[in-house]
């Protein structure tokens, strides 16, 4: 888990320090698409849910924890939020995730929980942690694409 924690930290720092950013974070490429602010908001929601999964899996197994991403983004009004506040919250929650993963008990890496909306689909903490970073990178690439006008 130490490698995943470091990869998470590196991903965040690289985005904050080196990646191109949109001139207009509130720009929506289509009415049904998220703006860069809403994408960061979605990543904050994902961070909160996954932090709960990682913590709970240290002592619990086979629980279900899901969320409805579009509804959460809308309910939290990320489009109207202050960008600096959003980026600080995103970085802070992910710092906590990295701390948890960096100190994760090795005997709990294979603990499972259900993150599927339908029938249960159980994934290990190790899978969820790795998938979490890949998911983040996917959305950060969307933000970078918006900064390039795509």
Q: At the first level of CATH, what is the class?
A: Mainly Alpha
The Rg value, from CA coordinates, equals: 16 Å
What characterizes the major β-sheet? Answer: 3 strands, mixed
Mean pLDDT metric? 96
The chain-level structural class is mainly alpha
Domain count: 1
Name the descriptors:
single chain, 150 residues, mainly alpha, Four Helix Bundle (Hemerythrin (Met), subunit A), 3-stranded mixed beta sheet, 5 helices, globular
Describe this entry's structure for a reader.
The chain has helices at residues 2-18, 36-56, 69-75, 83-102, 125-147; strands at residues 63-64, 112-114, 122-124. It has 150 residues and is mostly helical. A 3-stranded mixed β-sheet has the order 1-2-3. The mean pLDDT is 96.
